[in-house]
Amino acid sequence: MSRLRLDATDIARIAVFAAIVAVLGLPAGFSVFGSVPITAQTLGVMLAGAVLGPWRGALSMLVLLVLVALGLPLLAGGRGGIGVFVGPSAGYAIGWIFGALVIGAIVHAGGRPLTWPRTALGVVTGGILVVYAFGIPVQAAVTRLPLAETALQATVFLPGDLIKAVLATIITMTLVRAYPRAFRTGARRPPQRVEPETAAAEPSETRIP
Questions:
Q1: Domain 8-188 is in which class?
Q2: H or E segment and range at residue 30
């Protein structure tokens, strides 16, 4: 496995996507069943994974959540502090890290060029299914409701999340054509050395009897 190498540009891109998710949380979300708010921040998570790739996308979400834990009000409605991670929405927030990881892994699978079907599959799988897989059990545990009932309640998020998945796919595929440099997810290749042709350079010996 190749190591994740970060340069100044990578760090800047990670910070930008963490900021995008924070900005998408500025409009106050509204809560469903008095627990988990509906926000636009999942759109930013989808874009982070699709554009930055698996590890950089996950790292951008980790940076955001560390800042939240330190008290910065970066979640929807200006929420922040360590208390966020013991509330009903804690699992969804943690799911952002793994969601971005899965999105990037699918969208950039094998280092191949991005395609519409694979990008859509990635943002739906990571941005919805993975996030729900973390969020629903934690919500059920915190609210002390049965898991099945909590999962049924979570279906209210599904229409909005599907719309965000469509938007993330369109934005990603538009961006990859308009500004492909934003998608530099692979390791940089060192410049290749061109060896001189020594055979032609060696003079032939002529023996004079």
A1: mainly alpha
A2: strand 30-32
Structure tokens at 196: 């001189």
Q: Give the residue carrying structure tokens 């874009």.
A: 47
Q: What is the pLDDT of residues 70-92, one digit of tens each?
A: 999 999 888 999 999 999 999 99
- In degrees, rounded to 5, the angle at the alpha carbon of residue 152 between the alpha carbons of residues 146 and 157 is 125
CB atoms within 10 A of CB 15: 13
d(CA 15, CA 41): 15
Distances (CA, A) of 201 to 35, 114, 196: 77, 45, 8
pLDDT band at 31 (very low <50, low <70, confident <90, very high): low
Least confident range of 53-57, 91-95, 198-202:
198-202
DSSP H/E element including 37:
strand 36-38
What counts of helices (H) and strands (E) characterise the chain?
A: 9, 2
Residue appearing with tokens 């440099």: 181
* Domains in the chain: boundaries: 8-188
